[in-house]
Write the structure tokens for this entry.
Amino acid sequence: MVTIADVARHAGVATSTVSYVLSGKRTISTDTQERVQRSVRALGYRPNASARALASQRSNVLALVIPLRTGMHVPVMMQFATAVVTTARRFDHDVLLLTADEGPDGLERVAQSSLVDALVVMDIELHDERGPVLRELPMPSVLIGYPDEADGLTCIDLDFVAAGASCVDHLADLGHRSLALLGTPSAVYERQTGFAQRTLTGFAEAAERRGVLGVETPCEHTFDAILTTVEQLLDDHPGITGLVVQNEPIIGPLLDVLRRLGRRVPEDMSLVAICADDVAERQVPQLSSVTIPAERIGAQAVESLITKLEGSDVPGLTLLPPTLTARGSTGPAPHGDLTTA
Amino acid sequence: MVTIADVARHAGVATSTVSYVLSGKRTISTDTQERVQRSVRALGYRPNASARALASQRSNVLALVIPLRTGMHVPVMMQFATAVVTTARRFDHDVLLLTADEGPDGLERVAQSSLVDALVVMDIELHDERGPVLRELPMPSVLIGYPDEADGLTCIDLDFVAAGASCVDHLADLGHRSLALLGTPSAVYERQTGFAQRTLTGFAEAAERRGVLGVETPCEHTFDAILTTVEQLLDDHPGITGLVVQNEPIIGPLLDVLRRLGRRVPEDMSLVAICADDVAERQVPQLSSVTIPAERIGAQAVESLITKLEGSDVPGLTLLPPTLTARGSTGPAPHGDLTTA
DNA sequence: GTGAAAGCGCTAACAA
DNA sequence: TTGTTAGCGCTTTCAC
């Protein structure tokens, strides 16, 4: 292994000089710089990460805590994760992967052993036991999602309340008077997951405000469950002509179910999804949708963390406004419906 | 921060004694052990990861390199990743997440800086440029998948050749004489991805051996692409009554397409998939399938790595035998077909 | 603009 | 069974 001492000897300078050339933390004559850089290349020198971390009290590693639980849509999580890794690398950091099933102890472990400099925590519940832990940790953290009690925490998320509302507004603007929200599996609601709850809130509030009917139901992932749920829904509320879906894996089968039930999209039934753009665009017809800006949220989380590591402040809560893109799955309410509500 | 010296002082012993109590690397009297453990708890001591890594030349971190590319099925990758993390934790290791787009340089970076002790590399291509790099690295690695030139590397994978063959055998045993393989998107084949190629090989060889027709076609992920591909296939080979699918995301839409084309599963068309069990079980009808043992492969990869870190040898290539589970999607060939081949 | 040297917190000889 | 101490390779004061 080539050490900084080897480089110093080879370049005929002190080890501190090599260190400073590499970090740029003090001014070095161009001549010395070049000599050192040449030696670095000649010897193939790589700074030892542990030694550097020990001396500088910085590991240049961020922790990323991902959920492993049921009902989460995996591709979206991967988008978050890759955005976090990619952005971290831009700032010369690496990412340590933790699974949520290590629990609050896992966070303490990596933080208190100085394995990492900061943490990104995904899949935050409304009453998240990790909140108190993160508040006490001697290092910055950013939550993707936000708990009820978010004081002293830094949180980033899509504004799901606004997202739910914008779906209602879009459909109401098209003349629909009876709407339903097909949500995540009930386990996700029972876990008090923030995004699911908040979409529901936004949906209900907007329905009330617009004076339209807004019913909500969870939905499991199997084809049979989807079929049963939708049949039940249309049985109970035959006037429904607008559907909001927040549940990526059921989107394909749902289109199927509607076809099987003889409801054309969008002629008989308008559909707006809360999902990744590529999923919306892959369907037939393409889906009007509110996008989940996973890349932006992941990148933003890391940027906030870096800012905090540099000693600056960042906003406590960043809510990204939703963007609804109208595509082929939403259209004017069928005529008969205007009075049916 | 509480250091080992604080603990030693508090317990009235030498720092080395504390170290040895914690590592168990030498015999300590029960009495001293308890005193030290009490002090550790009383002070809330956590060993500093960098200091430990620097002194012991072991970071206790494994690198996991995941692909970010098109055509990979994300949920399966997540299964690998979580199996790797979970197993690593069982052996008191953490996992550093790298994306494949850092390329061979990324591997060298984390290895030569001693950020990690060993590497798990996923999504290996037949001619993988990382093979030579991994061979030269001063630390063990395990590949999930295997390249053409695998000498000196440790590889673990499902035996995809056998998987492709077992699908053919299953269908041939049921009397089917004309089969098709609906594969991954063509980009995956063009990348010379091992698992896709090998399934194809196994499929073709078995078809030949069984004396049945075996045609193969890649398939993209959009609904339209699936529809077109299948129509074309059945146009060119009207006698086809057995389908093998290696392409998870198209499974749902494919069932749809078959329904739309008026082919009942399994009465008119038998279907066997190479996919995760839960995906197979979620369909209607449930799919006969060869499972992708992601958990086992991920766990096995880490176990091999730990073995190597301990200085023992492991087999160069571990191929897990495929398991085919017959479910509702395969049945006897339709009568007319027995002579149609 | 550069060098010397004192740590960072731990492990593992070596010594007793 | 336990203690003493020399590093591990780097960063960063302090001194010039």
In short: The first strand of chain B starts at residue 61 and ends at 66. Residues 337-341 of chain B have pLDDT under 50 and may be disordered.
